Amino acid sequence: VRARLVRWAAAAALLAGLAPPPALAFEFVSPERLGAAGIVWPDKDDGSGLLEAGPPAEQPQLAIGATHTQWFGLRQLASRSLTLAAGRRGWRAAAGVAATGDADLGWRTLAAGGGVANVSGGAGLCARARDEPSSARQIAVGGSPFRGAEYSAGGGAWVRAAPGLRLSAGAARLWSSAGASLPEDAPQASLHLGEGALVAAGACRQDGRGHREWALALRVAAPPLRIYTGAYGAPLRTTFALAWEGAGVWVAGAAELHPVLGTTTSAALRWRW
Amino acid sequence: VPLRRARASLTALAFAGLAVCSPRAQAQCPPPGPPALINEVLFDPSGADAGLEFVELINSAAAVVSLAGLRIEAGDGSGPGRFTLRWEGAAGDTLAPGRRFVVGGAMVSPAPDRVVELGLQNGPDALRLVWPDGATEVLGWGAHEHAEYFCGAPAPDPASGFSLVRRPDGVRRGSNAADFEPATPSPGGPNQVGRDVALVPGTLRIAPERPAPGTSFTLEAALASLGSQALGAREVGVRAAAREPDGRETPLADTHIDHELAPGDTLRISLALAWPDPGKLWLRVDLALADNHRPEGDRDSIPLRVGPGLLEITEIQFRPEPGEPEWVELRAREPLAPDGWRILDAGGGSGRVEAPGARLEAESLAVITQDRAALLARRPALDGARVWQAAPWPALNNTDGPDGFADRVTLREPDGTLGDAVAYSGDSVPAGGSLERGADGEWRPLPGGSPLAPPRPLPPLAGRLLLAPSRWHPARGAPLVVGYALPWPRARAALELYDLRGRRQAHLVSERDVTGRGEWTVGSAGGRGLPSGYYLVVLRARSGTEEMVERTVLRIEAEAP
């Protein structure tokens, strides 16, 4: 009975999350993910990993999840997302919607992805359509026109190189209607340290403007809790997240500290079967 | 007077020797015929020229030379064939071997051999000797277009008060540039002595040109060993002193040159100095050399203003509407007489302010313009008593150069002291608009301009940081106006641009002193090259030990129109 109550409460929360325009900012932080450095934990199973950069989840699962992220404490810059992930045997699929910002400055994203995976490795493709609601209005009132929609596609893969060692890489925008784009995320490796402990590192990457990124993260599991912490990039950003899982419901909260811009907070809820 | 402490340091740099002209030019000029040569000429004495100009000839041969029928002609380099007679030798005018013969004005000292008002021009011009047998010698100075006005290559155009001398006396290297150099006038005397050191005319410099009270500045100069003998290390002393308006003098530096100086060597010296009080003073540099055979040229001075200048530039109209001339608005910090001030641009263009008898009271605004009548016709409501013309007008550029500035407007007092200087970018200024300095010291575009009007007050801001527009199109040349309101009356503030991944993408405004309420106009160059997307504009400010960071979202559109 208790488990059923938890599930119904989670379902109610998800429905409440749908009341405002549904949402997603797949490219950025979620409680399990270290912001721009792009660490995607191997057991992430809400589909956002597949939607973000292509690497599919290792285990097949049917899950629905929602996130809410407040960027740098700015009220005008919040992201909400809703994702659905499904898998059967070696096949993986995910879809989601997201909205960031407000009616003045903001965008909405619709994404879908698919791939294959087993215990040795996996690969996937993802595609997104993004538009800015205010762009259509601005054109309608005679404002200056600008590109209000963007379509992009990318992909990613992971491989278990050795027992406990997993390597993965992804590029969210291998193709974009707004022009070519460099890979957004660093190639990364994750290594099981022992029972429930996992360390992950992202390699250096340099974008077209000379920025280098790196990431180092640690996850410790003590069921029903999981603790995530890490640091990445320049300027140095640090993250901390705590997740709880029980009765098929997974709840997490995270904070990321930027030395100048302030703190980004994120909360997530997932329901899986 | 308490002794002001000053630190002094000295550096030296040897210059390369003077260039010589080609062998062909050496063979042709000056002609081998006449044994008497032009040895020195002063065509631009300090102040009024009348009575002070002179030409010195020298006979380097072993026999007496008759000057009867010799013509001294002045050349006007602005066009071909413009030589006019200034003096002609009479029967009985002779020049003994090794002697000098001076033709000059009545005020030349010692008295010249022949008194005549030469009326030489200041360059690019020339002097020519024409001998009765047709042989000629020509000496040209400045940048010439016509070859008849110089021999080999023209000599440099010396600063006012300095003559051109052949050094050593009577030398013939085959080119005006190789034979002559600027020097302190020495009519009737040798151009080169045994031991001589002098400051190179016009080389005194101060950097920064208008230092803040108590802060270090650099006084630079070049000195030259002009004698025929080498000077040993530490033989040449360098002293600097400050003279205040009431005549008080304060020593600032006393040091020595640590280098040996061969004949002809030139050294650049640099003294690090400081002055504690705001105001105007004169910096004097003296060279000291034991047994100096010629003390002339051992001293030079330059005016210096410490702290704010007498005025500040408050508005610049460099891109006026058709029919309106360019103009610059200024505000007097102290009462001043504007007549004779100079306005300059970055390219060296310079105009003199013509305002005889005018006076500007403290805190008053005035306008210096390219065409006073046109400006008053265009804006009849202006107070004509505070509108003055400068001629010639240094045309102000509209388009930014590689350094991000379109031009630099400089105002100088009649004696050369810096009044104010402003380098501006034309990037964000629409046609017909001016750039105005706000009460917070920041420059902002102002549609239509507002000559003789104080800067518009900024309205209260709804928030700490506000952008206009929130969607920025830098590729279209649009500026970004950033309004801010700080919790302190004054602060240090900077503006940065971050992407949503938290990476800094640009410094939009470098850290500077600001007032509590202000506005920045960021030129389109600040956003060029950035991909379309969402960014965070971050205002970082601090006052004392307090700090604040304010952020807001900006959408950048990278597409060109």
Largest interface: A-B, 28 and 24 residues
The amount of beta strand of chain B, in percent, is: 35-45%
Query: Which series of helices and strands of chain A comes N to C?
Result: HHEEEEEHEEEEEEEEE
* Number of strand elements of chain A: 14
Can you give a write-up of this model?
- The complex is a heterodimer of chains A (273) and B (561).
- Chain A is 11% helix and 53% strand.
- Chain A has helices at residues 2-18, 48-53, 133-140; strands spanning 63-70, 78-88, 91-101, 106-117, 121-131, 149-162, 165-176, 188-194, 197-206, 212-222, 225-232, 237-246, 249-258, 262-272.
- The model of chain A is unreliable at 13-29, 34-38, 136-147 and 180-186 (pLDDT under 50).
- Chain A has three helices and 14 strands.
- Chain A is globular, with a radius of gyration of 18 Å.
- A 14-stranded antiparallel β-barrel of chain A has the order 1-2-3-4-5-6-7-8-9-10-11-12-13-14.
- Chain A has 273 residues and is mostly beta strands.
- In chain B, strands 28-27-23-24-26-25-22-21-29-30 form a ten-stranded mixed β-sheet, with helices on one face. Chain B has a six-stranded mixed β-sheet with strand order 8-7-2-1-11-12. In chain B, strands 31, 32, 33, 34, 35 and 36 form a six-stranded mixed β-sheet that branches.
- Chain B has helices at residues 23-28, 176-179, 372-378; strands spanning 36-42, 54-59, 65-66, 71-76, 83-88, 94-95, 100-104, 114-115, 125-130, 136-141, 163-166, 180-183, 197-199, 205-207, 216-225, 236-243, 249-256, 266-274, 279-289, 299-306, 311-317, 327-332, 342-344, 350-354, 365-369, 387-391, 407-412, 418-424, 434-437, 443-446, 465-468, 471-472, 480-499, 504-522, 533-543, 546-556.
- Chain B has three helices and 36 strands.
- Chain B is mainly β and 561 residues long.
- Classes of the chains: A mainly beta (273), B mainly beta (561).
- Chains A and B meet through loops of A and strand 35 and strand 36 of B.
